[in-house]
Structure formats: structure tokens, C-alpha cells
Amino acid sequence: MTSRKRGRAEMESSEPPPEMSLLQRIRNTWEFSNLMQYIFIFGKAVKIDEDFSIDDLETECLKSGPSEKLVEIGLALLKCVSSHRGLTPAIFDEYTRRQYVAKAPDTNPFGTDETPKTFDEFDIFTKLSVLCQLSRWTFANPDRMREKMSETGDNEQIQWRVEEIGYDKQERFYYVLDDNRLYRRTDPPLPPPPAPKPKANSKKAKAAARASKRRKTKEFQDSENDDEQDITLDHQVEEAIEGDSFAGRTWECIAVTLTEYRDFLDSIKKSRDADEKALHKRITEDVLPVIEKDEESKQRRQAKKEKEMMNMEKLATAKRSSRLASKSVRLLKQNRRGRQTSQPPLPTKKNKRRWKKLASHA
After folding, report:
1. For 312-325, what is each residue's pLDDT tens digit?
2. Would you give the end-to-end CA distance of the chain in angstroms?
3. Phi, psi of 186 (to 5 degrees)
């Protein structure tokens, strides 16, 4: 038997995909971008720091230990959900658990023991899930949220809704959120269409009728077992739907930097698909100028920061040189004073006469 040489495409498809870093996994979590979009739009209304950026959120998510900032965000959201007054970080875990017990007991991560699990001990994905859930509960009273917002007109409130900017040939949705990042949503495949029914007088129809009679006899004999299996299956389906908070969809962060945007545009530049042509045009004309401007602003801030660091380094060097010079002058003066005190006093006229008088008596 002769061996067949595999092509490059076949070899690449058989290789396992590279393992994603923690940062990439966080970026591909829909709760992460959802929480940040909530802060962009409603953060001021719920008293979350307006200067808190997507980069700050990434920094907090990547911390190996507890994050005071994430607890602070959770507490701000909890105050809009709970009727309890005087909420503090010390009782955040207990009162967040009470919200879960009342509204979503099946997804309660804090447990039901006397002492609840703490938010700080959760992994980052559970933390994001809790914060995202709290943000959704703030809309239980939408009129109260509207009163806190500065945009009061219907036209202004329509802008809160985020629409997709386009699609690709695989019918995947693309979004650009207020963090200026490109995301892609992939929906699960549609269920297959039902099989066509055979004609009434055909052989298939007669066979199906006979099979139906046999099934009815079988169902009568095994009804109890079937009922138990149906209940178990229904329960498993319900658990799967409740456990999947994104309804089986996949969320991916496609582009963050200007280079990543350009790489993505290059990948669909020569496409003949109408949706991808429209997507390429939309990003090139409407999104890319904003990303380029933001990139220039980041470069200026980075250059300014580096210049400040260099100035601080020069200042620290100058202060060190000044201290060393002052220390050298001080040591020089001390040495001079020491030499002066160790030398005998110079002879004066009075001392000379005294020595002559003593010499004559001798």
C-alpha cells in the first residue's frame, strides 16, 4: 500500500488550535463586552466611575488576587437592585446571594450554606457573570432607570440599542461597540426542516400507517418507561437552556488594534459575497477613521507618558548628583576643621616674650 502525502491545508486542519491566553478568553466572553457596554451607557446613572475604560476592566480581570474595583462596580449595581439601605462591601456577598435566591436560584453561585461563598473566591468568568446578571436586574424598573438618564427623548433612547454593522458569507453578525472593538456573533445552526409527509394512497403512507399501529401497541406496554424517559429528557433540555445564558451563540473579539482591523479587512477585501463587500465598505468608511484617530491619540498619550518618565528620571538623577555634591562639600569642610584643630597654635608676640622670660630665669 502506497502512502499518500497530505497537503498543507489538510495538515493545518488536523492540527489542534492553539490554546487561547486568559486575556483572549476574557475578550471572547460576551459578559465582558456586555458589562463594558452597560458601563458606557448607564454607568453614570448607577454611579460608576465615568473614566473607567475597557483597558481598566481588562487590568482588573487579569489580577490574580481580589479586585476592589470589581466589588465596587458590583456594589453600585446592587444598590440599584436591592431595597436595603446601607449596603457596604462587607455585606455585598450576602445581599447579592439574596437577589439570586429570589430571582435566579438555579444559577446562584453563592450557595445556600449559612455563610455564603465570597465574590473574591470566584474565578473571573463567574465574577463577570455575576456583574452582568446584576446589570440586567437594574432594568426591572425601566422607568426608574430612564429618570436617571440625561437622554429623555425617544430618539435619544433609541441610540441605546446596538445594531450589527454587517454580516459575512457564513451569516455571522458583526458588531462595533463603544469600546471601538470588532466582535462577531455566531448563531447555532437552525434545526432541520420536518420530513415531507407521504401521499395518502402511496405505499409509503400505508407502511407508515401500519408502523403507527405497531407503535401504539408498544406505547401501551411501555408507557411508564416512556414517561420517565420523557421527563428526564425534558429536564435535561431545560437545564441546558438555563445554563447557556447566550442561547448557544458564540461571541468572539475579532479586532482590538488598528493592525488587527486592517488584517480583518484584508481577509474579506477580495470577497465576491455581497454581504462581505458591504461589511468591508461599512468598516472602511465609518469605523476605520475612528480607530485611526483613537490609535493616534493612544500614541500621543504613550509618547507623553514616556517623556514624563524620562523627565522624572532626569530629575531623580539631578537630585542624586546634587545630594552627592552637597555631601562632598560637607565632608571637605569637616576635614578642614579637623586639620585646623589638630595643628598647634601659631606663636604670638606675647607668647614669645613669655618664653624668653622663662629661659632667662633658667
Report:
1. 777 777 767 777 77
2. 133
3. -115, 120
Rounded CA separation 255/264 (Å): 7
Burial class (CB in 10 A: 0-12, 13-18, 19+), 127: buried
Residues composing the chain: 362
CB 151 within 8 A of CB 273: no
CA separation, residue 110 to residues 101, 133, 134, 242, 264 (Å):
9, 13, 14, 17, 41
pLDDT at 88 over 70: yes
pTM, whole model, 2 decimals? 0.69
Ordered alpha helix ranges (H), the chain: 8-14, 22-27, 30-42, 54-61, 68-81, 92-103, 124-137, 142-148, 154-158, 203-221, 223-243, 258-268, 274-282, 288-342, 349-361
Q: Which residues face 176 on adjacent strands?
A: 182
**Angle, CA of 225, 228 and 231, to the nearest 5°:** 150
Tens digits of per-residue pLDDT, 322-355?
777 777 777 777 777 766 665 555 556 656 666 5
| Identity of the amino acid at 116 | P
Could you tell me the CA-to-CA distances from 196 to 122, 210, 229, 318, 337 in Å, in that order?
50, 18, 27, 87, 113
Type of residue numbered 138 = T
